[in-house]
Amino acid sequence: MSWLPMLRRQSSDSADERPWTPEEVAVLAEAVRRAPSVHNTQPWSLRVQGRAAVLRLRSTAELAHHDPDGRDRRLSCGAAVANLAIAMRGLGWATDVQWHADEGEAMVIGTRRRPTTAIDRERRRAIGRRVSFRRAFNTRPVPHLARTAVATAATTQATWVDGPAEEHALARLLAYAARANHADKTYQRELGAWIGPVSDEGLPAEALPTRGVSATGLATGATRLPDQEQIARSLAQESVLVFSTITDGPRDQLLAGEAAERAWLEATRLGLVASVMTQPLRLSEVRAGLSVELGLGGMPQLLMRIGYPLAIPVPRAGRRPLPDLFAD
């Protein structure tokens, strides 16, 4: 595996003090590579030394209209940190995550050997199974125990949209955002540049529906815009989780991304599928409206649809080659 970075090996009799093996580095790198990201831009680089792995927000093509402040890129990096920590735990290490938000990086350290549990191993396997399921879900409702487990796995505030009043409030805001994003020609040109055949970056066109809640949450030029009542009826058949933070700085956004990925992997472990919506939240009035209408007491960072899958093929987005992961 010639792409692996060179690791400084130090003589030690203690397994707790040795650096990562090349096999362990391969596992950690693949876990980062499989993380979800805004428009599948994979805006991170990885550096591994000793028993520390540093994930850094890398210079990448700017999403000047979708993500002018870098919030979605930081959410993406938070998700990659979650995968890194979960993979490390699945390898039998206790972990410590150190955030350096102002520098755009996080360090995950394997602090000591710790036996894995069955759930640790299941969560690690879920990294490779997780997929963005943007289609309609099976009508089977998500049980209360599963909803509780998914929300509990999150490490920031995660609130279920609950009841007709909240469903109609969310439907109104999603309909407004979809119309605004659909009509913004400059934004649509930028979005269109990231949609096409499966490649190392970007979104595969065949994975994007043209109707339903998920399509409303990522409105393209091809989206058929439903009315508010149609969206509300669809939301009544789905489980939607809103991730929010009290404040809205870079660290909050990284933590929200980590929390969402932990919840997503727990859902995957339980046989559920999910997709994330951040496009509506690029509009400040939608974020503010969600905070008020859902009584969040903070700023919403992303929305996650969760349900049981229909038996249909779901195209997977491509990923950059592993050597590129280590290029800053």
TrEMBL record:
Origin superkingdom: Bacteria
Protein name: Nitroreductase family protein
Any one GO molecular function term: oxidoreductase activity
InterPro entries: Nitroreductase-like, Nitroreductase/BluB
Region described as Disordered: 1-20
Originating species: Saccharopolyspora shandongensis
